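Write out this protein's structure.
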Amino acid sequence: MAKVVVGLSGGVDSSVAAATLHKQGHDVIGLTLWLMKGKGQCCSEGMVDAAQLCEELEIPYHVVDTRDLFEEKIINYLVEGYSQGITPLPCSQCNRSVKFGPMLDYARRELGAETIATGHYARITHNPQTGRYELRRAVDRTKDQSYFLYDLTQEQLAATQFPLGEQTKAQTRAVASQLGLHTAEKPESQDLCLIEQHGSMQAFLDKYLAPKPGDIVDTNGQVLGQHTGIHHYTIGQRKGLGVSAPAPLYVVALDVARNRVIVGERDSVHQAHCIVDRVNWVSIQTADAPIAVQVQIRYRSPAVAATVVPLDDGSVKLVFAEPQFSVSPGQAAVWYDDDNRVLGGGLIRPYAPDEH
């Protein structure tokens, strides 16, 4: 069997991925990327559990220090994004630039392995007619993580295995119990690693961005209150605005140039279309004409009908069948076909305040 390097977070999913491949007879090597110090599955606590798992399986274990890379690619990316009035999605960026790419490079350069694996819930298939590796939703739709993996390259998909893609989370826990893994009952992480460490995204951002007070205004420009920094707000936010009105108000747009938070009633937070940049075509090479898709504009939202219209500059225009609530610049839009293949994805482009 082939040598496989398995990325270990210290959680039950990556543990079962490693144990499954080991049981199948693969030459498994455990590896954890050290992203940052502090509490959280990806850090010190996770390393201890990952090391213990490798002892249980009697397989080698490596820790690779990628803290500088994480600082450059993720922390700086987040801080810059929030300062510019967008809501960045760090996970897809992290998967491509910090996790899968560096892990595959290390596996090949230092460990003599051509294949890596993780505990993500997604599936990879190969289409012999197109020659492309296709990314598909997991069998367990409630745990499907393909949304966060849309930015992986063909080279990365070709060298990656997702052992959990064909099973449910309940089956994963059952396998962990059957194999006597110490992580079998470990609670699932609910937040971004940065939030786990700092307590909230606002607390994290306040370490890097100084308060910058400004006006909260309605869609007509009338001042309703004050804010302490636009980085504390996201499109569609309702709670914590600190202003009162006869009807509930939501953040409609963030005006960076004038340092204003624009609020309005719920109907004003709907968008009929958006532009998506930094597009990565996955299961198909590209599209040269409009295509009908199912698109997801945030991880926890259901996919909705839309049309992808390719633009000359490589970006696409997403036209929703029905206007969508809280289309947030900086978040990923990922589009699928009826077979649950990830056709492509990218980042929602910021729009001008008068586009709401």
